[in-house]
Write a structure and sequence with these properties.
The chain has 367 residues and is of the alpha/beta class. It contains 8 helices and 18 strands. The strands form 4 sheets. Strands 1, 2, 9, 10, 11, 12 and 18 form a 7-stranded mixed β-sheet that branches. The radius of gyration is 21 Å and the shape is elongated.
Length: 367
């Protein structure tokens, strides 16, 4: 008789929401396996290492704000250094008629960042899980009832069975990449296919330099542009300006041949010749990330679907639960929203009809 790989809960996706759900479920005594399609954890928490020890530059999510207590508390417990976003200096406005300098920082608000990059949050969550709790390079291709009261989760490496499954990936991505065998309700399918992917239709560009020279000129590193290719720019430098970096957002449609050169030229126009020759230029086009964005990502624009009521209710006879920052009812699109969605999905599993009693340590005890 062949071995049947069975768990209490399968979590699909090892980004912030998936890892938060897995953490809460393990704390409650549930045998939980997290399946991640990529070769690393974090999802849209993606950070590029630098030559500065324990310093990284974020290619995905960057900030957290006052009132986002899940992120703050998690960073504190994990010993992750955070620091305030640089705010001092003036803003630049680039128009077709030229560039204007506007007094003060008109773009950024008080917020905090992670010295080692936001991916350090995911790394800390994954490291605290029991060995073997996360399987990398394991994309989920199908989920369907297994005929024995649970769900079968199909992957290229084989099938895993579980009583409950948590989808911790963007809903539109799940509908495009996972075969549910027509078992999902039609209204849920319509909402999920139409829900935008946060950051999914943008490219984030990070330019690293030897020094934050713009600060010496009294500039905040903040800029608006009506000509592009970057539409907005911010200071991404680390604590005390090391490593020094600027970053900007561009619509993914603008990333084509010559894009890197156009970005460097724009930075030079705004911040002077030194800005036109970054030591390193990262272009992270999230629209082409196959495990983040569906093929329709650039056409999804109804952000009112974030936190939709259908995501708050499990499907497939109460066994399929939704997580990911897009499903959060508060702070959707933020790291805080991802953690909250993972927490909600875990609680949904723990309170499902017929769920056994467990040593529920509550979510305040993470990780």
């Amino acid at each position: 008789m062949s071995h049947r790989d069975s768990r209490d809960v399968i979590v699909v996706g090892a980004g912030a929401s998936g890892l938060a759900a897995a953490t809460a479920l393990h704390a409650a005594g549930r045998d939980t396996l997290c399946l991640e399609a990529r070769d690393h954890t974090g999802g849209r928490l993606l950070s590029a290492p630098t030559s500065h020890p324990e310093r990284a530059l974020d290619l995905g999510a960057t900030w957290f704000w006052d009132g986002e207590e899940r992120v703050r508390a998690l960073a504190a417990r994990a010993g992750i250094e955070t620091f305030a976003q640089h705010l001092a200096g003036d803003t630049l406005l680039e128009e077709t008629t030229g560039t204007r300098r506007l007094a003060g920082n008109l773009m950024d608000v008080p917020s905090r960042r992670f010295a080692a990059g936001s991916q350090s949050i995911a790394t800390a969550l994954a490291a605290a899980l029991p060995a073997g709790s996360v399987r990398l390079n394991t994309p989920v291709t199908a989920i369907h009832p297994d005929g024995q009261g649970g769900l079968a989760v199909l992957t290229p490496a084989g099938t895993v069975h579980a009583e409950h499954v948590i989808l911790a990936i963007p809903p539109a991505l799940a509908l495009e990449r996972v075969d549910f065998g027509g078992a999902l309700p039609a209204d849920l399918v319509r909402v999920a296919r139409a829900t935008p992917v946060w950051m999914g239709a943008v490219a984030k560009v990070v330019a690293q330099y030897r020094a934050a020279f713009w600060r010496e000129e009294g500039l905040a590193g903040a800029a608006f542009s009506r000509t592009g290719p970057l539409q907005e720019i911010h200071d991404l430098s680390g604590p005390d300006g090391r490593p020094a970096a600027l970053f900007g957002f561009a619509h993914a449609r603008r990333v084509r041949a010559g894009f890197d050169k156009a970005v460097a030229t724009q930075l030079g126009r705004l911040f002077g010749p030194a800005a036109a020759t970054p030591d390193v230029l990262h272009v992270q086009n999230w629209s082409t990330e196959q495990f983040t964005s569906p093929s329709t990502v650039q056409h999804l624009a109804d952000y009112s679907l974030f936190g939709h009521s259908l995501y708050q209710r499990p499907a497939l006879d109460g066994r399929l639960h939704w997580a990911s920052t897009e499903t959060a009812t508060d702070h959707a699109g933020h790291i805080e929203g991802a953690l909250a969605a993972g927490e909600r999905a875990a609680q949904s599993v723990l309170t499902a009809p017929g769920a056994p009693n467990s040593r529920d340590k509550r979510f305040a005890d993470w990780p």
